Amino acid sequence: MDPLTLAIHATPAFVASAVEFVEATTIVLAVGVTRGWRAPLFGTLAATGTLAIVIATLGVALVAIVPEHLLKGVVGALLLLFGLRWLRKAALRFAGIVALHDEELAYQREVAELRAQGLQRKKFDWIGFLVTYKAVLLEGTEVAFIVIAFGAAGGTALTAATVGAIAAGLLVIAVGAALRQPLTMVPENWLKFGVGAMLCSFGVFWFAEALGMAWPGDALSIPLIVVAFLAASWLAVRMLKAILPQGAEVEARNV
Amino acid sequence: MFRGISSTLVGLLFEDGQLAIGALLALAITWALATSGGDAAQQIVGWVLLVMVLVLVVANLYRAGLIARARVSSARR
User: Fold this and answer.
1) Does residue A70 sit at the B interface (CB-CB below 8 Å)?
2) Distance, in angstroms, between B60 CA and closest chain A CA?
3) Closest residue on chain B to A213 (Cα)
4) Chain B, nearest residue to A77 by Cα
5) How many CB pairs under 8 A join A and B?
6) Do B71 and A91 touch (CB under 8 A)?
7) pLDDT given at position A250
8) Which of residues 73-102 of A touch B (CB under 8 A)?
9) How many CB atoms neighbour CB A139 within 10 A?
10) What residues in chain A have per-residue pLDDT under 70?
């Protein structure tokens, strides 16, 4: 696979998956720190196994059975809908209308809830197991969707998207394991802003391809579309800041 | 996966119906243009969709800003 194809298809999947892995890692860390590491590690492994089965059956069947143009059309439309939601929320967060997602706050809330549940040292911690299983499974299915979406072209694109997601997972898990605290240094809103633009761009690209359009330069059009989405969204953020009166952003959230 | 898709659709439809309806309308217009407009139209549908979605994003956020400003103004009164 040439480096350009790898960069185009692996980077979006890497960035988008990293956001999901950070959210899952926060919960696994919260469970591990408050209730011990055995149950959350089993929960994570069980969820990973479940995901592998789901992807091996549903994902492969989807790519192998559904005609390529139909898959691109459906995935393109879904990507656009997903991406618009991410992009809108990130723009509203940048403008101050919606509160920024706070990984430290999410971690502290999870820790408080888990402490309130109590712990019996001698028994297997089923609460810790189920909390991590559910979190990893839910965030993992989003990663699976991201991989299928970015790899909808099949072949090398699917391989690159898978590589990107695995690399993101390994990096986030390694940093989380080393620090043993929530990954607050990850600029989540910037990532969501960028990922939203990328999801929308891939959505527009796949949907038009499904309808028979040949983009100039094929996949080379994608960076151009991403830039258009980023520019329009950033313009909208500036516009939002200009619309709201000085210092009214936090006020706007609470009314 | 299905939970993610359904929560996104529900979120779009109920949290911000204008954006969901606008996006679905843009996709429908693009599809209609590609199927009824011939080969020439088929080769520009992507750009048409891109422009429609960009306008939709800016218009939707502008509307969100106006709503937030109205809320702040009425709360201050």
Assistant:
1) no
2) 8
3) B43
4) B27
5) 135
6) no
7) 52
8) 77-78, 80-82, 84-85, 87-88, 91-92, 95, 97
9) 24
10) 1, 5, 8, 59, 63, 99-104, 118-122, 153-154, 182-186, 245-255
Structure tokens at B57: 């994003």
With beta carbons under 8 A apart, name residues in chain B contacting A209. Answer: 46
Q: What is the ipTM of this complex?
A: 0.82
Cα dihedral across residues A89, A90, A93, A99: positive or negative: positive
**Taking Cα atoms as reference points, which of A22, A68, A92, A181 lies closest to residue B19?**
A92
What pTM does this model have? Answer: 0.73
Return the domain boundaries, chain B.
21-76
Q: Which two tokens stand for residue B29?
A: 């217009």
Separation in Å, CA A64 to CA A78, A129, A170: 19, 34, 28
**A91–B43 C-beta distance less than 8 A:** no
> Do A31 and A182 form a contact (C-beta atoms < 8 A)?
no
